[in-house]
Amino acid sequence: MRLLARGGVSVVGATGNTALVNGRGGTDEAAPRVEDDYDEVCLLVPPRTSHLRAARLVAAEAGGQAGFDRNELDDLRVAVGELCYTLMDATDQRLLLRLVVRGGRVIVRGSAPKRRGAAAPRLAGVSALIVDAVTDHHALAVDGERMSFVLVKSAASAVSA
Fold this sequence. Notes:
By secondary structure, the chain is an alpha+beta fold. Helices cover 30% and strands 30% of the residues. It has a six-stranded antiparallel sheet with strand order 1-4-5-6-8-7.
């Protein structure tokens, strides 16, 4: 597992702007471009559930920087864990997680190549309900053989300000 802090270095697999789908079914504006942000943190995660904790810890650090309270941090960790698990279930290669904090908002993008013959990833059942409830926006996508997700969560203090 490698942790990469961006400082003007291109990240392989960067995807550009992604239209967000509101977790409750509506559409929203496109997420800000993350590629131009020098404070982006990238984490390469082996596709084993034993490494989900690392992804959740990095997400919690980003949430702390965004001013999330304890419940918001827990919500972010859970959502990142569910979305990463969903990609891990359909790949045999490392996931690339990209996190950036903008004010009181955390944007998390994850991507990985789809395993040959694997079904398209999707949040099902309780996982979908949980991620819908604890994020502002999220989306899962498959583009050819590449799978990705985007998650946006804002601190309550940033929303009410």
